[in-house]
Design a protein that fits this description.
Helix content: 40-55%
Number of helices: 13
Strand order of the largest sheet: 1-11-12-13-16-10-9-4
Number of strands: 18
Structural class: alpha+beta
Shape: elongated
Largest sheet: 8 strands, mixed
Oligomer: single chain
């Protein structure tokens, strides 16, 4: 969440940034934060003054009894008792103000970086780079859901029987291709210096708050009511929360971690052609890269992460473009976000396969993730970053459609050592 220092010292920048994200009543909300903070400070001053008076008065009581001034000592005791009642009321009031302030701060999104363009929706995102070669498919080219049926690769109906819509079952060579992609992405991350983590697939409420899924996205997360645990929407959540309440040393930054995980999203309200086949699932696999860095280096880290994801698209021989998201299309927590989309030739549409974001200090403030400066030994908030590297379903959709032949689907050269075959077809063994 935003820090009070940031809000108070840079109020106009914060308000303009929130308006860029189309956050309703930004000025009024920020003024309320400042007012609550003033009340909290004023109340705390009264509380500190009363506690100081209690200490001073209490220290006199023993001496007065020794001097035989019992009446005067008892009078001071009575005054101390009244002061303690006042302190309790002030303490309760402080807690109430602090809780209201904290809950209000949780509802305020991150402020966009100055480079984030104005805009209200995905239509206003800016293409900053393009790459790869567009495939030349025949007019009768099939979409991936038809190809999967033709070659018996994915059974969507069986997934509905076992669980429900959005939970496909992968068969034979397709299951092997899934495994190959996971291994390929993890190995590429390892080569780039990321330490692999195998995280839990469920997290507690504190972890949801730490990375900003709560209270913003609780409707999109699967919740295990009995244990008050949440299925992860991305490995970002458990991996980043490893550093909750941690002070890192400056010399150890940037911290680089990667993780493969299943991802679970309710995708409430999704409908239409965008949800067909692999385009939008409730369960899918993804490799995530996460960085914890110091503020003056985090944008260099962001460039390196973008280059890493671009390299994956190139090695998979997929046409891609990189979008800089506008203020109205950004996530609640990001300060800047770039989306990678690959072209799905049979569908004739671009499919998002990665978001690479710098959250600056927003998540770190929630997490209380700090680093100790090597020069001053003071602690400061870290910056956190993450990116998909990559998400499988839409990558698979594009690979299948773009590389289709009458005999099967050609496998990109980079994946052949990982899957052990060159053609994805119905010869599943």
């Amino acid at each position: 969440m935003l820090t009070l220092k940031q809000i108070i010292e840079d109020k106009e920048f914060v308000i303009k940034g929130l308006e860029k994200k189309h956050f309703a009543n930004a000025a009024e909300v920020i003024e309320k934060v400042i007012s609550l903070d003033f009340s909290r400070r004023e109340n705390q001053q009264k509380l500190d003054k009363s506690l100081q008076e209690i200490n001073i008065m209490s220290s006199k009581v023993g001496g007065l009894f020794k001097e035989g001034k019992a009446q005067e000592a008892n009078k001071i005791r009575e005054e101390v008792s009244h002061l303690k009642d006042s302190v309790k009321l002030l303490g309760d009031q402080s807690n109430k103000i602090q809780e209201e302030l904290t809950q209000l701060l949780y509802t305020i999104p991150n402020v966009p970086n100055k480079d984030v363009p104005q805009g209200a929706s995905a239509a206003d995102n800016v293409v900053v780079k393009e790459g790869g070669k567009m495939p030349n498919l025949p007019e009768d080219a099939l979409c991936h859901w038809d190809l999967c049926k033709k070659f018996n690769l994915i059974d969507f109906d069986l997934g509905v029987k076992v669980t429900g819509a959005g939970f496909p079952i992968y068969i034979g060579k397709m299951a092997r291709l899934q495994r190959a992609l996971e291994a390929f992405f993890l190995e590429e991350a390892r080569k780039a210096g990321y330490l692999e983590i195998q995280p839990p697939y469920v997290v507690n409420e504190a972890s949801g708050y730490g990375t900003g899924q709560l209270p913003d996205k609780e409707g999109q997360m699967y919740h295990c009511d009995l244990d008050n645990l949440y299925l992860i929407p991305t490995a970002e959540v458990p991996v980043t929360n490893i550093f909750r309440d941690v002070i890192l040393e400056e010399k150890d930054l940037p911290v680089k971690r990667c993780a493969y995980s299943g991802c679970f999203r309710r995708e409430a309200g999704s409908y239409g052609s965008d949800v067909r086949g692999l385009n939008r699932l409730h369960q899918f696999d993804k490799v995530e890269i996460v960085r914890i860095d110091k503020p003056d280096h985090s944008y260099e880290s962001l460039k390196e992460m973008l280059s890493h994801v671009e390299g994956l698209c190139q090695k998979l021989e997929l046409p891609y473009h990189i979008l800089l998201l506008c203020g109205g299309d950004m996530s609640f927590t990001s300060a800047i976000c770039y989306d990678f989309e690959v072209y799905s030739a049979a569908q004739k549409k671009w499919l998002e396969v990665s978001s690479v974001s710098n959250f600056e200090s927003y998540q770190a403030n929630r997490l209380k993730c700090r680093y100790r400066r090597s020069d001053t030994k003071k602690t400061e908030l870290c910056h956190t970053l993450n990116g998909s590297a990559l998400a499988l379903p839409r990558i698979v959709a594009a690979i299948i459609e773009n590389n289709q032949t009458p005999e099967g689907i050609r496998i990109p050269k980079a994946l052949i050592p990982y899957c052990g075959f060159e053609l994805l077809d119905d010869k599943n063994f």
